[in-house]
UniProtKB/TrEMBL annotation:
InterPro entries named in the record: Cyclic_Pdiesterase, RNA_CPDase
Record's keyword annotation contains Metal-binding: no
Gene3D superfamilies reported in the protein's UniProt record: Cyclic phosphodiesterase
Alphabetically ordered keywords of this record: Hydrolase
Motif HXTX 2: positions: 125-128
Catalysed transformations (reactions): a 3'-end 2',3'-cyclophospho-ribonucleotide-RNA + H2O = a 3'-end 2'-phospho-ribonucleotide-RNA + H(+)
Transmembrane segments: none
Protein role: Hydrolyzes RNA 2',3'-cyclic phosphodiester to an RNA 2'-phosphomonoester.
Catalytic site: 38 (proton donor), 125 (proton acceptor)
Organism: Tenggerimyces flavus
The protein's name in its UniProt record: RNA 2',3'-cyclic phosphodiesterase
Motif (HXTX 1): 38-41
Family designation: Belongs to the 2H phosphoesterase superfamily. ThpR family.
E.C. numbers: 3.1.4.58
Amino acid sequence: MRLFAALVPPEPVLISLANAVAPLRDLPYRWTAPEHWHVTLAFFGEVDDATRLELERRLARAAARHAPVTLALTGGGGFGSAKNARVLWTGVRGDFQPLRDLARSVTAAARRAGIELTENRYKPHLTLARLRTPTDVRPAVEALTEYASPTWTATEVELVRSHLAQGAGGRARYETIASWPLAGKV
């Protein structure tokens, strides 16, 4: 099964973001559905059942060592660049170093469970849209420049299964299969 670990913003944050993005929905992007919005901590790819059980055990331990993190969504950008992007995103601000530390612990838990991950610098974000070909997303980025969501406190890590091509319009469908509280001391 295809898995990733994520923090999911609460409904008021999702509603705020949906309102900010609504005027942009006419742009010809493959928009992600608000019910799929999340901040990825690590993407694990295909994981067999035995490895998943070990991953769950290790993720529970990792989450227990970290305190909740206070975050907000802000602005916009594009991966590779706003002028030539494959992904339109909104950024994350707040307890940035604790968030990076949490992502590092989640990645270490996956490696200890036997999952091979590529070494990438962690860039916290929430994906708003994917683009089939590199596209100039500067109009959307400019429209999101002043956006800032309400602040929220992420209190749990979710392990999410991605069912490719099983959602609306042939897109992925996400299913949370486990979650653990961020239980460390603040």
